[in-house]
Amino acid sequence: MTSIPLTAHGAPRANTVVLEHLTKSFTKHRSWRSVLTGKAREFVPALTDVSCEVRAGEFFGLLGENGAGKTTLFKVLATLVTPDAGAATVGGFDVGRSPQRVREILAPVIADERSLYWRLSGRENMRLFAALHSSRGAEAARRIDELLTLVNLVEAADRPVSAYSSGMKQRLLVARTLIARPSVLLLDEPTRSLDPISARAFRRFLREDVAVAQGCTVLLATHNADEAFELCDRVGILHRGQLVAVGQTSEIAREVGENRFALWVRPADQSAIDALVARGVIRDTTAFVDEPGGWSRVECDLRDGLEGAAEAVAFLAHAGVSVARCEPVQLSLADLLERVLARHAAHA
């Protein structure tokens, strides 16, 4: 069972975003021949009966292949697209009936660096965006200074944005969005243009300085395994517009039979491994991979997880095979998605 995040006083957090049977389709592109011949319009489903709740202060990830419906869902929440059926509420306000109130609570973080004015300084970009939100004078200056401090751009604040690194620009984009004090942020692949070290620093910034320090609820669409496994409290997996799984990545992995282990053995005794397969203890083994010191590594799915690991180690030791290490192998994001979708197809 997924644990419920608590407030500092121990009370359950309220739900900030609630989706109830959300459905949206778009008209399929028609050729001129189809239009002239009066061929009926065809519709492509983008979201189908999506129901989910995101709790206040939660980091919630949206996973799925391209075209799964992540962007459409974000556009619905941002009041840019009207759903065909169902409901979506943000902070208790319906995206269709109260779009202005929703926009006061929720803001998408535009990850495109080109949306910044590169000839202006970081501070000037912030002033311009503050003015668009009718925030000027001393109050705006205080808020801008506060946010530039938050994103660690005080020393670079008066330099032109063209001189910023990609990581600095991403932090400035987040700071710009926070001017309006939204409590819900939408992030669409925010680290896709960053190198691995900058991406790690930016994820730490999002977790510690945005989600925790600012108290924001964050919905994150990502293809990045580090963001899905390390940053998100829970994830939802979309497939062809349907929400096929929701939970912590570790829980979802267990549900789809994640019992993948790596064994470091010596010697590389294929007959002993075959005997374990015949006994039903392991399955889906990889070929031996040579490691330093004469050790070999073999990956396999172990029946009953740790219990199966103990049985496999005991069997190999009895067969004269030394086992130096036996540890779980974390599924890659691609493997996790494939297994979840295969399970969904089997039950469809």
What is the domain tally? 2
Query: Under the CATH scheme, which architecture of the largest domain would be assigned?
Result: 3-Layer(aba) Sandwich
Radius of gyration: 25 Å
The CATH class of the largest domain:
Alpha Beta
> If strands are numbered along the chain, what order do they take across the biggest sheet?
6-7-8-3-9-10
User: Which parts are unreliable, with pLDDT below 50 for 5 consecutive residues or more?
Assistant: 1-13
Give the N-to-C terminal Cα separation: 23 Å
Instruction: Give average pLDDT, whole number.
Output: 87
What portion of the residues fall into strands of 2 or more residues?
Answer: 25-35%
Q: What percent of the residues sit in helical stretches (DSSP H or I)?
A: 25-40%
Major β-sheet profile: 6 strands, mixed
Number of helices: 12
The CATH superfamily of the largest domain is P-loop containing nucleotide triphosphate hydrolases
Shape: globular
- What structural class results from the helix and strand content? alpha/beta
**Number of E strands:** 15
Indicate the CATH topology of the largest domain.
Answer: Rossmann fold
- N-to-C SSE string, H for helix and E for strand: EHEEHEEHEHHHEHEHEEHEHEEEHEH
